[in-house]
Amino acid sequence: VVSHFQPKVLAGRKLLITAGPTYEAIDPVRGITNRSSGKMGFAIARAAAEAGADVTLVAGPVHLPTPQGVRRIDVMSARDMLDAVLPLAASNDVFVATAAVADWRPAQAADHKIKKNAAPGEAQVPHLALAENPDILATIAALPHPPLCVGFAAESQDLVKHAREKRQRKNVPLIVGNLGPATFGQDDNTLVLVDARGERELSRADKLTLARELVRDIAQRLTTYPA
Ligand code: CTP
Ligand code: CA
After folding, report:
1. Tell me, what's the ipTM?
2. Could you tell me the pTM of the whole model?
3. Average pLDDT taken over every residue of the chain
């Protein structure tokens, strides 16, 4: 049973959330990934379920328990994540993209483990050709009747400027900015909500507290979405 102490501001609503990193195979034993813990996305999934929403969480490889009452789909690569999200997007009211999706993948994953095959110092160093991954958030936002799309932007500098640019480039109503990678894996965070009207900062708190605030904000936006 999910906590009864949160107001059910998302009762009757469906949320689709991506979380964690993606893993892009180089060969059967190696891959490209990143240090996203998935904590923010899992906290949002929990907060949304507490608020009465029907929640589907599409998670890359993370070490986190599934929040109570949340439907979880595990994926590895960015393309797996898109394949999981795309058929569900139109039937959801909200899409929250917290995943740290790998921007590139090896153009061709090797079928077998790549071997050094030489004496030390004489090895041929493999050169990885990369291909660009699909932008999951931009793809969903470009659907004919998109759910309310919420993007995240982890930046190391000029947070609000980059968040504004991303909001326009991906054509989404709301981007949530945070100053990573200082926050990666940590329990506390500071978020800034960037929409067409301006910015609102959520003061430093643990991720579940911030997630509950964000859920309230999203519930408010849903009352006038689509406009
Ligand atoms: N995103 C996505 N699919 C991608 C890349 C990003 O869905 N292939 C989503 C992320 O989940 C996040 C938002 O887009 O909600 C912004 O991701 P970010 O990596 O900050 O933006 P990029 O457009 O990839 O730009 P850059 O990494 O160069 O800052
Ligand atoms: Ca990126």
Report:
1. 0.99
2. 0.95
3. 94
